[in-house]
Amino acid sequence: MERSKGKIATREFIAIVILTIGAKMTDDTPAILYEKFSNAAWMAIIIIGIFSVIPIWLLINVFNTYKEKNLIEIVLYLLGKPFGYFVLFCLLVIGSVAITIDSSIYTDIVGTMYFTETPTIVLYAILMATCAFGAKRGLEQIGSFAWSILLWIKLSLFLALLLTFFQGKLDFIFPLFGRGVDEIMHGGISNLSICADFLFLTLIVPFAVNHAEFKKAIWISLCIVTVELAIALIAFVALFDYEPVKMLNYPFHEAIRYIRLEFLPNIEALFFPFWLLALFIRFSFYLYLIALLFGGLFKIKDFEYLIPSLATLFVLLGVIPENPTFSIFHFRDPFLKIVTPVFLLLPCLLWVMSKIKGDIKV
Predict the structure, then answer these.
(1) Which residues contact residue 61 at a Cβ distance below 8 angstroms, ignoring those fewer than 6 apart?
(2) Distances from the Cα of 156 to the Cαs of 30, 146, 150, 256, 356, in angstroms?
(3) pTM metric for this prediction
(4) Where are the domains of the chain?
(5) What is the pLDDT of residues 72-126, one digit of tens each?
(6) Dist. CA 297–CA 292, nearest whole Å
(7) pLDDT at 133 over 50
(8) Number of Cβ within a 10 Å radius of residue 94
(9) What is the CATH T-level fold of the domain 10-357, as seen in this structure?
């Protein structure tokens, strides 16, 4: 498996993470959280961020011990080839299913909210073709582009959330604990898979400038994403109230169509281009990670050439659901519950095996 010759700096790594994980506020993730936690969904996100520290800390400790290895090499070294290959294959399946689900959801958003007359297959093909082109350019190009547009995307998001708060009512976030503290704690822990992207991010550890920078980027990204998602969830409740917001599949896009500026009647036209850029960055990066994992699993040196084929496969799988607005929504929730134990247990297993081998000294 051929590694990228260059390195990505801390700022580029942070930009990629913020644009990939942070983009979850714009899909159906808020709808899933509102359905479970009502107006206390923002507190559940904070619980998820806090408990995600445990597997992430274990992963960082493992990677500090094996500084020249990526996730693929570490899994094979610590778990042995038979079981290690099985674990990697499971990660490949999980990652592929996640891309298929997410890309289907985002295509549905574009089709139902913006381009209602365009066939779904056309939108899907354009999305994945553009992202495949970006992924084929390599990790350095993805990181550089992500950093170059990060400021503008976040400024547009800040403006959208600011208008949402001004035109909403903060009284709607009460009672703060929704259905109870116990339910928030239990539900937050069972939905840790929302941050499971950090597990797949370890595939690009060798591409970071150094491990100190990688560690710093991980913690900064986790804090920013957690706060950002929590603020967005508060804003949507403040605008729609906690009962109506549970009936919305994509609260972010409903919000930008609802809020108003006097001099700009169609305000969604201001935010849509920036959202599309974040979307392209997200799936370009995901395609790159899946190709990297596929190449490492099947010992394919030039894994970048797999990207167009993988993108085509995801399009064919993603157009299978006839009504993704509802079918994918109900499938995604149990999928998140399946991924949560993987995100929790795999870092623990790697850390324990490294401890048993005597490689971790603390």
Answers:
(1) 351, 354, 360, 362
(2) 19, 15, 10, 11, 49
(3) 0.90
(4) 10-357
(5) 889 999 888 889 899 999 999 999 998 988 888 888 888 887 888 888 889 899 9
(6) 9
(7) yes
(8) 19
(9) Amino acid/polyamine transporter I (1.20.1740)
